[in-house]
């Protein structure tokens, strides 16, 4: 990684993506809550429950614990601290803040919508609180998408590919376990992924605008 100062991703790039993802997240949440997707949700949940394999279930339990909301928050806070120590304070604050904001957002949405979890007979581990959106999926998408975006300008091409691939695979694995273990509907996870990624792109867009304004002020300041 190059620690020399570099410009963040431009808001004109991240802003439109954030807007699209916010709309997508809203649509998915609305469709899930109104029951439009319930047929597919039920079919997926029942099918996965019928095809569970003991060894895979053990792995899924480990992955779902490692990828819980605390784990994703820890990744963001540690990554943010490292960036701050290396002189990238704004990027570090962004990385730390996005998952914290995401946790507040998904908790509020859950309580407002109060969607029920899959029935207990489909669950490997008993979970009874609100279901939509998946907190695991929201947080893992928020933390890892933000990490990719803030590090993108300072990584070489190989580093970008490796980090992005790991982030996508890890977020996908964590989300899959929630459906596989019967504690979330598929639409909960899809909505969580979209919400987390949307908040990440929104946060990096704000970061870019702040740093751009800071740069303009410095450039126009009298000598």
TrEMBL record:
SMART domains: acidPPc. The keyword Transmembrane helix applies. CDD domains: PAP2_like_2. The chain crosses the membrane at residues 12-36, 56-85, 92-113, 133-154, 161-181, 193-211. It comes from the Bacteria. Keywords: Cell membrane, Hydrolase, Membrane, Transmembrane, Transmembrane helix. Residues 93-204 form the Phosphatidic acid phosphatase type 2/haloperoxidase domain. InterPro entries: PAP2/HPO, PAP2/HPO_sf. It is an enzyme of class 3 (hydrolase). Pfam families: PAP2 (PF01569). GO terms for molecular function: undecaprenyl-diphosphatase activity. One of its GO terms (cellular component) is plasma membrane. It is found in: Cell membrane. It is a multi-pass membrane protein. PANTHER family: DECAPRENYLPHOSPHORYL-5-PHOSPHORIBOSE PHOSPHATASE RV3807C-RELATED (PTHR14969:SF62), SPHINGOSINE-1-PHOSPHATE PHOSPHOHYDROLASE (PTHR14969). This is Undecaprenyl-diphosphatase. It comes from Pseudonocardia alni (Amycolata alni).
């Amino acid at each position: 990684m190059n620690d020399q100062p570099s410009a963040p991703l431009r808001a004109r790039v991240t802003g439109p993506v954030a807007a699209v993802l916010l709309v997508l997240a809203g649509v998915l949440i609305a469709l899930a809550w109104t029951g439009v997707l319930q047929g597919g949700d039920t079919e997926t949940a029942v099918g996965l429950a019928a095809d569970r394999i003991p060894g895979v279930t053990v792995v899924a339990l480990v992955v779902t614990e490692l990828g819980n909301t605390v784990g994703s928050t820890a990744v963001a806070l540690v990554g943010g601290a490292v960036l701050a120590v290396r002189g990238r304070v704004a990027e570090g604050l962004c990385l730390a803040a996005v998952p914290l904001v995401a946790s507040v957002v998904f908790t509020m949405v859950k309580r407002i919508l109060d969607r029920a979890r899959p029935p207990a007979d489909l669950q490997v581990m008993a979970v009874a609180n609100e279901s939509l959106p998946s907190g695991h999926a929201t947080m893992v998408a928020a933390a890892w998408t933000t990490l990719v975006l803030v590090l993108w300008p300072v990584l070489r091409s190989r580093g970008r590919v490796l980090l992005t691939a790991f982030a996508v695979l890890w977020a996908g694995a964590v989300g899959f376990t929630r459906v596989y273990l019967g504690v979330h509907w598929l639409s909960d996870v899809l909505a969580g992924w979209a919400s987390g990624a949307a908040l990440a792109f929104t946060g990096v867009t704000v970061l870019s605008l702040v740093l751009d304004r800071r740069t303009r002020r410095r450039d126009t300041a009298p000598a």
